[in-house]
Automatic annotation (TrEMBL):
InterPro entries linked to this entry: 7TM_GPCR_Srsx, 7TM_GPCR_Srsx_nematod
Keyword terms: Membrane, Transmembrane, Transmembrane helix
Lineage of producing organism: Eukaryota, Metazoa, Ecdysozoa, Nematoda, Chromadorea
UniProt KW Transmembrane helix keyword: yes
Name this protein carries in UniProt: G-protein coupled receptors family 1 profile domain-containing protein
Signal sequence annotation: none
PANTHER family: G-PROTEIN COUPLED RECEPTORS FAMILY 1 PROFILE DOMAIN-CONTAINING PROTEIN-RELATED
SUPFAM superfamilies for this protein: Family A G protein-coupled receptor-like
Record bears the keyword Glycoprotein: no
Top-rank lineage group of the source organism: Eukaryota
Gene3D superfamilies per UniProt: Rhodopsin 7-helix transmembrane proteins (1.20.1070.10)
Transmembrane parts of this sequence: 33-53, 65-88, 108-129, 150-170
Positions of region (Disordered): 177-200
Amino acid sequence: MQCNPASNASSNLTTPLVEQRVLYAELLEVYKYYIGFGIFAVITNIVCMLVVLSKRHMREKYGTFGVLSFGYLLNCLGILLAGLLRTHYISGNVYNSLNSFECFGRPWPYLFIVGGHLPAFALLCMGVERLIAVNKPLIYRTYITARARIIANIVCVLLSVISLLVGALAEDADEQPRRKKLRKTPTRHDPIRATLTNDD
């Protein structure tokens, strides 16, 4: 996962900064669409959430639609932030090579992960609810209450957050061997420290 679309440009130190800006000028045009569509999608999802939350009856019966819109809202915010910040990085010639774990220092991976999983869990709950309503109408009318829907929505949010934590921990575990290797690599400026590190 690359946070910076021009993450490899920093390795080419002989290329003038002006040429790098010209090289990635097409990406600036692409990220204008990120920003435009991101703003449009954020506004539409906010409207959907306000409609669902406007009345108590709709909150109780269609609360999952509100959770679904909230998940899409997070995803769209990620698109918007990615477009804005990547445009800033390219315009300012800030080309840093980042690994996957360092990518978590940017704001949009969190929004993409939670915003990607939350709608999926919400759609799963909606599908299960409709399946029960069609095949087991008596069970549906007895057990699928407003309280059950609220619990299901909370579970969807918790699962999305847990998936984010699992992803971060897994990426950190993959990154630890590389860190150990870097610590054991002798450096030109401090050979004594490198020797002590190798002895450990």
